[in-house]
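Bench notes, afternoon.
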Amino acid sequence: MKLLVTGNIGYITTEFIEEAFPECQILLLGETEQKSNRNKSLSVYPMPKTEEEFKDIFKTYEFEGVIYFSNYLTFHGTMEGEIETLRKLLHYYKGNRNSRLLYITGPDSLYEDTTGKTLMVRSAEEFCRQYGELHQIAVKILRVPYLYSGTYEEDYFFKLFSTVINKKQITFEEAPAQEMHFLALSDLGDLLYKIFDNWGEGSACLQVPQVFHFTFQQLGERLAQMFPAANITYLSDVLIRDGISDDHVLRNEYGWFPKISLLEDLTEIYEDYCEKMNHKTRKIDVVKTFLKAHDKIVKIAELLLTFFVFEALNRVAGNQVQFQMIDLRLVYIVLFSSLYGINYGLAAAGLETLSLLAAYTKTGIGWTTLFYEPSNWIPFIFYFAVGAICGYTRLKNRDNIQFMKEENKLILDKFLFMREMYQETLSDKRQYKKQILGSRDSFGKIFDIAKKLDIILPQELFIETLHVMESVLENHTFAIYSVGKNQSYGRLEIASQGMTDVLKKSIRLDDYLEAKETIVSGEVWVNRNFLDGYPMYMNGIHKDGELVMLIFIQEVGDEQLSLYYLNLFQILCGLVETALLRALEYQEAIKNRQYVQGTRILKPEYFEERLYSFHSMREENRASYVLLKLEYYPQMTLEEADTALQASVRENDVWGISEKGELFLILSQTDRSSLPIILARLENDGFVCHEIDTVENANTGEKL
């Protein structure tokens, strides 16, 4: 299984990958310390910065699942750009077969009090749900407590340890009585393995319960034992949030519950932190860290100290012949402007100006003489000019070096990315070559499709047609309409999952005048002008020159607007037409056996077949129906009841009798919102209607 793991993946470790995704090909996309390892089927890429890079990744890899670690998993972490990144991922991921997204987020959306953060979390969850429903992506939202780590530099506890070591101070932004919500990474890995091992159908929202009821005061006491010199404070006036209740879903469905407590794991986290930061625990490194943290003060101290050293050197060696040819003041200015830039160069020039003024004063030259004699200005002008020029040169060289480093890093990242892409492409090429050489030829595929469509019951043929077309054409927006004898209306028979609520249950052919002529002539119509209200592809199935069925493809991707795709759709429609005509001819041949003589009332065994087909379509979320038990007046015969039903219901509705002689009616593509209108019409025709719970009958195995 190929999985894309992205988002806030700095927590991920090698042990976590082995525990959560054994025997899976993993692509880590984002900032992480993990490295690519082809032996372990692990690839690591930086987070793409452009749409084109996202597109290239999803074109190269055909992911069977995407796992997104939310920024909200980090306690007091940064929350920017989450929804935009999700949009890019889902935009390029949509259209894949068996698309699955696991969005792992924090517990903030479960809190009753509404804040800006809770609104953002709920918006991200709702975005994933809505996008998944729109593009047939199975979305599971997993709400977990915050993660923690001693090695991830953006983690709350990593920063907490750094603060307490450097400043001996801990300030919690929570009240002492506030309960903590944290989950061990190993517990999460065990849960992810079980979720993907038993994914199930459809979308769901799962939440990890809070089983360790520890407070921040207990955490502070534990830290006080580890750091006796630390000063720990709380914000006591902060609102205390209630704990998260357990709905027992994870325990009942996956047999999972959290096992590791943060307080018990705190010592090990600190050991991980110390191991990662070991190079900073030496005395020399502590001094380096201090000097780096006070960089400006150190530079000013160097500037002043070196100034006094040069002044002393100038007084001692100034009278020697060797040093009379060298201006030590100018050397000092050049040195600091070249080392630290233009600001320090000008500061050095200012100090040496004061030194020179003091030297002139010592020789008896006053400031008035210096001011009114322009030739005396030359040394001062040169001091500031040299400081500015050398400082500017230093600044320019530093900027050039930084620019070249960034350019080299960008080129290196692109090179590594392209090399990984090239290696993966070669691997996929070998794999696909084996699949092509080992698979059946196109004639075998056509035979396989024709064999699947060899069905005599129209409703079952509709189901299999949808399965075949969705699989071959890699699209999940199909609809099949049956056309009545008057050639004016089409009734929805079946549609792809998630499309039944979007598509019209009944259509007028005159609403598709742009396509009608093409369809009637037996050709496929393509919506190349993107007309509103029209599907992207339309094709008709004909019998004896008359239109009997329409097949729609409601939406297609850019790559599916090609001549190859058009021809493939037309070939499949031709196979469906052959199978449907064969099924209709068979139904016509056994018409006398199916119906009660002189009526359109199906006999019990045939009616149960139709009911089972309708129920299968509804179970797959491809159609809807309502089953009614009809009672009619004693003075009305069965033939008269049949005549009344033919005038009251649609052509694609089905009615029949049970073994007990009871009359039943199947209302195709009917939901509860339109049911009252139909019931009123039937009651006016002399029927008393009772809705039957088909789910209960199916579960108990009871026959009608």
